[in-house]
Amino acid sequence: MAEIDVIDKDNNVVGKIDLPDEIFMAEVRIPLLHEVVRNYLANQRQGTASTKTRGMVRGGGRKPWRQKGTGRARHGSIRSPIWRGGGVVFGPQPRDYSYKIPKKAKWVAMNSALSAKFRDGEITVIDNMTIEEPKTKLLTNLLHKIGLNGSVLIIIPDKDEKVELAARNIPRVDVSRVKELNVYSVLSHERLLISKDAVERMREAFLG
Q: pTM for the full model?
């Protein structure tokens, strides 16, 4: 079983914790990670971009001038795509970009992502992630004390309004509850800060 140091808020090692091999020592499957991230991003797309074709643009019901005798090119509608204010050819229409991938593939990808982070030494486990007040300064000071100054994903076991509110104004710092954790969030942050309780919750949620 993988073992990692547990630190306190002053960056002192206060013990060790065993990390489940199935979650943190799994095979890193790059193609699967790529597919799951693509799926996540596709599912986030709103798909609300819309343009009007020539049949949707208002006006243009009358032929602008007669077919012959004017010396100008023939036209049937002022809403033709080649006219200013005309319709758009092959423009985007509202659509649903989302698609499904097997749930098991998502679990395997999550274990793969967490294993990659552990392998690269980008996981820190803290014994207690609570703060006294929902203030950005308190959380910023805590991150600086333990040496996390870049992009950080804080993983907590359950809802914690104080931590979640405090992190909202810190650039490149996000908070995720265990049940909301996704592969994209794990891979898009440089470091993971996991509370000790969250490790136990991950053991329950991922391994049953």
A: 0.83
Residue 148, Ramachandran bin (φ over 0: left; ψ between -120 and 50: alpha; else beta): beta
Structure tokens belonging to residue 77: 């509608």
Residue 144 pLDDT class (50, 70, 90 cuts): very high
201 and 151 assigned to the same domain: yes
Q: How many CB atoms lie within 10 A of CB 149?
A: 13
Residue 56: give the domain boundaries: 46-96
Same domain? 118 vs 186: yes
Domain count, the chain: 2
